[in-house]
Every structure is written in structure tokens, then in C-alpha cells.
């Protein structure tokens, strides 16, 4: 199975308040996100992380060792805070700024920040969390083929492309 997720911001106190996440502490949030991930993702599954996996963790491996599946990272604006502290090749099939992959015959473009225009088949992005009123949210809604993989709009867990399409949350 192929899953998509973004903007976990593991270890971040700020994101709890900024996004209205229902957690009392970063530790509680981290445990809930890891549990949600591992409840869905098996060892042979693939997860495309579309940016901002964690925020400046002192020990990224402590998180990465606990997340099931084969992981691929599309680098987000906060990932530079922790990436240099770990062996990316050990944990990720790739760590790139953007990618195009095949998901059951569907060409899916992956990027952290949603672009103002997109002419491909499918787009999975992150970055905008559940922030209301962002002009880019309306733009993404008009596209019809662009989907927000952020945990804030996907029940705090990875989602399949079919789930992203069915949920049509941008």
C-alpha cells in the first residue's frame, strides 16, 4: 500500500497551538502521531512524507526507528532543522525537494509547498496545515486534482491517494 502524509512536526510545541491540535504536550502529540502511523502502515508499505516530518529533534533516529514502512522524504521548509543529524540514506529511499511517482498507474507529483499552478495528473502537497483563509487553499480547491496530505486534515495519520481524493480536503 502507498500512503502520503506531511507536517507531522514531531517534537514541536508551537504546532500544537498554531494548528489547534488536541494534545497537551509535544510528547503526547508525538506518541499519538506515531501510533496513528503504525496502525496504518506495515513494514512493506510505502510512505511519502511531503515535508516537515519533525522540528529540530536532538535525535531524529529515535523517531525514524519507530515509524513503520519504507519512507521517502520530500523536503519541507522545517526539515533542514534535523536532516543533518541523521543518515538520510539509512531511513529514506530518497530525500528530495520534489518528486513524481507512480501510484497504481497514476502519475503523482509531490511537493511540500503547493504551487500556484499545476498541469499534471495528480498533486499531493503539504505546508498549509489546516489554516483557514489562505488564498492558496482556494486555489488548490479550484484545481480539483490537488490534495493536502497534512496530518491536521487527515485524522493525524497517513492517507492513501484514494482517501485523499475521496476526502477532497485542501
Strand-helix topology:
Layout lengths: L1 E4 L8 H6 L6 H15 L5 E4 L10 H5 L5 E5 L13 H4 E5 L1 E6 L2 E6 L10 E4 L9 H9 L2 E3 L12 H7 L3
Describe what this molecule looks like in 3D.
With 170 residues, the protein is α/β, with parallel strands linked by helices. 27% of the residues lie in helices and 22% in strands. It contains six helices and eight strands; from the N terminus they run E-H-H-E-H-E-H-E-E-E-E-H-E-H. The strands form two sheets. It has a four-stranded parallel β-sheet. Strands 5-6-7-8 form a four-stranded mixed β-sheet. Strand 2, helix 3 (60-64) and strand 3 form a beta-alpha-beta unit. The relative contact order is 0.20. The model has no long low-confidence stretch (mean pLDDT 92).
Overview in brief:
Helix content is 27%, strand content 22%. With 170 residues, the protein is of the alpha/beta class.
The amount of beta strand, in percent, is 15-25%
Compute the average pLDDT. 92
Give the terminus-to-terminus CA distance.
22 Å
Rg for CA atoms:
15 Å
Low-confidence stretches: none
Q: Helix proportion of residues, in percent?
A: 25-40%
Total count of strands? 8
Sequence of strands across the biggest β-sheet: 1-2-3-4
Broad shape: globular
What is the SS-derived class?
Answer: alpha/beta
What is the number of helical segments per DSSP (H or I, 4+ residues)? 6
Major beta-sheet overview: 4 strands, parallel
Oligomer: single chain
Order of helices and strands: EHHEHEHEEEEHEH
